[in-house]
Amino acid sequence: MHDDAIERTRRSWNIATRNHNAHKGDQAARLRDGHELLFDEELTLLGDVAAKRLVHLQCNSGQDSLCLARRGAKVTGVDYSDEAIAFARDLSRDSGIAAEFEHAEVVSWMHKTKARFDLAFCSYGVTGWLPDLRAWAAGVHRILAPSGRLVYVEFHPIVWSFGAEFTLAGDDYFIRTPIVAPVEDYVAAAGTALAAERDDAIAGRNDEPAVSWQWTLADVVDAIVGAGLELEHLREYPHANGCRVVAGLEPEPGTRRWIWPAGVARLPLMYGISARRPSG
User: Fold this and answer.
1) Cα Rg, the chain, nearest whole Å
2) In the chain, what are the domains?
3) What is the band of 78 on the pLDDT scale with cuts at 50, 70, 90?
4) Res. 198 pLDDT band, cuts 50 70 90
5) How many other C-beta atoms are found inside a 10 Å radius of the C-beta of residue 84?
6) Cα dist. 37→130, 221, 241 in Å?
7) pLDDT band with cut points at 50, 70 and 90 for residue 157
8) Which of 71, 12, 19, 15 lies closest to 196 in space, CA to CA?
9) Nearest 5°: phi and psi at 231?
10) Residue 196 pLDDT > 80, yes or no?
């Protein structure tokens, strides 16, 4: 089941990757001009990345990877979408920002590679695509050098429980069965918050079902700690970076965030984790 689910999801992400990038115009030119795609929450948890060996797990098309490389990190990006990795390699070449990109299923790669890193970074749509959290966390522990750190910023899993008008009409927070649906064109829905430049871009239809899992925040933290990593920070945020994860959220002026409307009791929309591999 897991191998078939991973393959189906890879095909769906190949289509979604083409759709998402169709909206973004000349990304290489924007990177050459210094356009920043990273958010403050990620940068704060990461700290100074200059000269650090950094692996970007599930890097998608490499845009954030290259922003980290531009800050001086020695970046390796890993993703199982061949469409995304091909795009990332072209973007690296065309932007003049050096980084390496590996086409591989991330958990298998972490359990096989001989490479070791000072930082493992992942963000926004990560563990929900993985069937085995403990294998993922054990892989992160394996690829980190002693005292190396994991930094993970993610949408809070509670957001998928919301339906229209902030009712709890979405997915059950504690659902354990796989969720099957194509990867949506969320870049078009987010517009400039996710660097979309072309509203008129014709994106392809995605009828390929992807398979995901609903992991709670406790599931993720328990897997990380259970793998032997020491939790440094666990943070929650009342806003969503880039993606409008709940219908009815409003754009925060002057930012790329989505926030709760005035008068609505706020719940966390994102969380951030920093965990360290012990030095011994």
Assistant:
1) 18
2) 2-276 (3.40.50.150)
3) very high
4) low
5) 26
6) 25, 26, 11
7) very high
8) 19
9) -70, 125
10) no
Task: Take residue 106 and report the two structure tokens written for it.
Answer: 């991330």
pLDDT tens string 226-251: 999 999 999 999 999 999 999 999 99
Instruction: Return the higher-pLDDT residue of 275 and 191.
Output: 275
Q: What is the pLDDT of residue 1?
A: 47
H/E/C letters for each residue in the chain?
A: CHHHHHHHHHHHHHHHHHHHHHCCCCHHHHHHCCCCCCCHHHHHHHCCCCCCEEEEECCCCCHHHHHHHHCCCEEEEEECCHHHHHHHHHHHHHHCCCCEEEECCHHHHHCCCCCCEEEEEEECCCHHHCCCHHHHHHHHHHHEEEEEEEEEEEECHHHHHCCHHHCCCCCCCCCCCCEEECCCCHHHHHHHHHCCCCCCCCCCCCCCCEEECCCCHHHHHHHHHHCCCEEEEEEEECEEECCCCCCCCEECCCCCEEECCCCCCCCCCEEEEEEECCCC
Q: Mind listing the pLDDT tens digit for each residue in 99-112?
A: 999 999 999 999 99
Q: What is the rounded CA–CA span in Å between residue 154 and residue 181?
A: 20
Cα–Cα distance, 231 to 262 (Å, whole number)? 34
Closest CA to 211 of 6, 24, 3, 1: 6
Taking a C-beta distance cutoff of 8 angstroms, is the pair 69, 97 a contact?
A: yes
How far, in Å, CA of 119 to CA of 102, rounded? 16
Residue 230's CB: how many other CB atoms inside 10 A?
A: 12
pLDDT (tens digit, 9 = 90+) per residue, 35-53?
999 999 999 999 999 999 9
